[in-house]
Design brief:
The structure is a single chain. The protein is an alpha/beta fold and 435 residues long. The chain has a domain of 252 residues: Rossmann fold, CATH 3.40.50. It contains 16 helices and 15 strands. The strands form 4 sheets. A 7-stranded mixed beta sheet has the order 1-4-5-15-10-11-14, sandwiched between helices. A 4-stranded parallel beta sheet has the order 8-7-6-9, sandwiched between helices. The chain has a two-stranded antiparallel sheet with strand order 2-3. The radius of gyration is 20 Å and the shape is globular. Bound molecules: pyridoxal-5'-phosphate. The site of pyridoxal-5'-phosphate (PLP) has 21 residues, from α5, α11 and α15.
């Protein structure tokens, strides 16, 4: 079998996008603003300055369609392996005996192992530009903490990470990666914050949640000099940064004259889905394409399929602004599934808005069936996917099997948000029937 030009579509270094795409410019109605939890009024930019740099706040509130990517950030994108390839999953297609064409975007190739550096880098950059010296953050599976540690090392900032306890215990190598990049890592709930201590006093064996870890990180940020806080998903500026993924995909598909029937990505807080889908969704809103967008989430953390659309806190301790989003409630404690990056009670306000407007669909999957899909992918395409990404693979495989049933040559593109080489404890339990 000879290699054809759509087996892998590579871009050149200078194809790294020069602008981020802001879907707010193309939505038929404005995104709901974050509310001040005390006054219930929309947050003013200056209200956010205690935790975020001005540059990020301006991006958060922007309705400009395109926002320039600074050259230092493009240079760092090059360092982490952008532009990433778009690859055809021919062996998976053959295994499924489907007439569908399946492509996947390789966000697993960054040194941090996921898409998360796409936002960690500009966030660290914007803080560095304003003279900030330290960042605090939370991490679930460890991917965001890893990405921010890498970005802080690159721009010379200190980094303190609160890592959800279950992950801290399941994934010791993740902590070591962050420490190698120079970060300090605490198991959350920790003993270094008042909030962490209060949880530990009530529930000493609490598994931790992203919501709790966020409260701890914000608490440290508010009490430590020259320190800001950084969030790895959910907020508009994070979605914005991730659009380098989708813009590259559009360039790559153009090179093979292809418009996808489906684009599929997993959702935790929504950033890889948004980054991957929003540029094409903008085209769909303008009536130029018919692509369908599909988010996949765990049955056990069903924020889009079972959540309520309302204002809620982004964290558990009630320190963040109120965000209008699909939410399971800010004190929801998700079960300790291995896809730690999907264990979040809410969904990005921008993803919630496009879901409300009917621009996307969501499928929910059981943990076992997602690992089964991940193992099939590893055995056919040779890549061990992150447990989060297994949800996207499962979604793409289901669509490919439907195309087989209907004998239709659909084009399915999914986002491989990360690799799973530091998540082998989850695979261990799956392979031994202990999930
Ligand atoms: C963090 C993470 C996710 C989920 O976060 P989103 O903001 O929804 O993208 C998905 N996949 C991987 C590999 C992750 O690290």
């Amino acid at each position: 079998m000879s290699i054809s030009k759509d087996d892998r579509i590579d871009l050149r270094p200078d194809d790294i996008p020069t602008k981020w795409y802001n879907i707010a410019a193309d939505l038929p109605e404005p995104l709901p603003p974050p509310l001040n939890p005390v006054t219930n009024q929309p947050m003013r930019p200056e209200d956010l300055e205690a935790i975020f740099p001005k540059g990020a706040i301006a991006q958060e509130m922007s309705v400009e369609r395109y926002i320039d990517i600074p050259e230092e950030v493009r240079d760092a994108y090059l360092m982490i392996g952008r532009p990433s390839p778009l690859q055809r999953a021919r062996r998976l297609e053959r295994y499924l005996k489907t007439p569908a064409k399946i492509y996947f975007k390789r966000e697993d190739l960054s040194p941090a192992g996921s898409h998360k550096p796409n936002s960690a880098i500009p966030q660290a950059y914007l803080n560095m530009k304003e003279g900030v010296e330290h960042l605090t953050t939370e991490t679930g599976a460890g991917q965001w903490g890893t990405a921010l540690s890498l970005a802080c090392a690159h721009f010379g900032l200190g980094c303190k990470v609160f890592m959800v306890r279950t992950s801290y215990e399941q994934k010791p190598f993740r902590r070591l990666v962050m420490e190698t990049y120079g970060a300090t890592v605490h198991s959350s709930p920790s003993d270094v914050t008042e909030y962490g201590r209060s949880i530990n006093a009530k529930t000493p064996d609490h598994p931790g949640t992203l919501g709790i870890a966020i409260t701890e990180a914000v608490e440290v940020c508010l009490h430590q000099k020259n320190t800001k806080y950084s969030l790895g998903s959910v907020l508009n500026h994070v979605m914005l940064h991730q659009t380098v993924i989708g813009q590259e995909v559009m360039m790559q598909l153009e090179q093979i004259d292809t418009v996808p029937d489906y684009m599929v990505a997993c959702v935790g807080g929504g950033s890889n889905f948004a980054g991957f889908c929003f540029p094409m969704m903008g085209k769909k809103i303008q009536g130029k394409v018919e692509t369908e967008f599909i988010a996949t989430e765990p049955v056990s953390v069903p924020s889009l399929t079972k959540g309520e659309l309302r204002y809620d806190y982004g964290d558990t301790g009630g320190m963040t602004p109120l965000l209008k989003m699909y939410t399971l409630g800010c004190d929801f404690v998700p079960s300790a599934i291995h896809a730690g990056g999907l264990r979040y009670h809410g969904m990005a306000p921008s993803v919630s808005k496009v879901a409300e407007l009917g621009y996307m669909k969501t499928y929910a999957y059981e943990q076992n069936e997602t690992f089964a899909a991940g193992v099939t992918f590893a055995q056919t395409e040779g890549i061990i996917p992150a447990p989060e990404s297994c949800h996207a693979i499962k979604g793409a495989m289901d669509l490919a099997l439907e195309a087989k049933k209907n004998n239709e040559e659909k084009v399915i593109v999914f986002n491989l948000s990360g690799h799973g080489l530091l998540d082998m404890a989850g695979y261990d339990r799956y392979l031994r029937n202990r999930l």
